[in-house]
Amino acid sequence: MNETVGTKIPFNSTNVGKCMCPKCPVQAKSQCVSGKLTSIKDALAKTSLIREDIPGVYCSTGTATCKDLDPKQSCICGGCAIFSQFNLAAGLPAGYFCRDGFAK
Ligand code: SF4
Ligand code: SF4
To answer: Cis link prior to 93 (omega < 30° from 0)?
Structure first.
């Protein structure tokens, strides 16, 4: 169930549920992300989550597989429960995980 790409934050459905990325302005106009969000329930029903299916928890899984994001908009990771729980403000990158890779 826990397929982790980074080592810090477990890649599981609980953490996907807490992730704010689906509401982030960086992803708001991405057709690639919209497509993945329409089938997110099926994606979460799989025994092992697949990073390409989940447009979020980039702090766990690393750089977004969708390429039509807009990093000129503001990252909202700072308001996320995972960000506080794992003290991601103290690590690198400190946000924009979709662009800069998983938290270390
Ligand atoms: S810290 Fe950012 S990437 Fe990680 S789960 Fe929260 S909103 Fe998603
Ligand atoms: S990692 Fe930050 S910038 Fe990227 S989609 Fe999530 S909240 Fe937005």
So the answer is: yes
